[in-house]
Amino acid sequence: MNQDLSIIQLVLHASFIVQVVMVLLLAMSLASWTVIFGKFFGLNRVRKLNDEFEREFWSGRNLNDLYSLASDSPRKGGPMERIFASGMREFLKLRERHVTDAGALLDGARRAMRASFQRELDAVESQLSFLASVGSVSPYIGLFGTVWGIMHAFTGLANLQQVMLATV
Fold first, then answer.
1. pLDDT in tens, 42-53
2. Which value, to the nearest 10 degrees, does the dihedral of the CA atoms of residues 38, 41, 44, 50 take?
3. DSSP secondary structure string, 66-95?
4. d(Cα 59, Cα 53) in Å, to the nearest integer?
């Protein structure tokens, strides 16, 4: 009973269902790693863009200048810059309507910034539900493949006339 127990031989001699389960788990793993690395690089980019904008914001620059820069290139800037631009846009819109109540101006800008913040948060959190689903479902899929393989092995043992420990 000298069998080759390499991974490749074990996969090739596994039943079709077990092979499908392994391919499914491999595909889910590759997709997960793609999302993980995409999130890693995306979050680093967001952090860098936010740091740049924060330096500009606290440097004492005129808010109108910052707003014009943010409005000129909304895709180039980071989330903080887009949140600032939405708040400033709402503030200027309310001022054009001759709203003189400072509280109303600030509430309008705050509402616009909260809505923009939520959009940015949704963009950053995208695909996290996929990772959570894969993380919670994968062990059960793997367990199914294991149980199927064991059932297949016991079926093969049942067909033998004499079963010894070496056969198992």
1. 999 999 999 999
2. -70
3. HHHHHHH-TTTS-HHHHHHHHHHHHHHHHH
4. 10
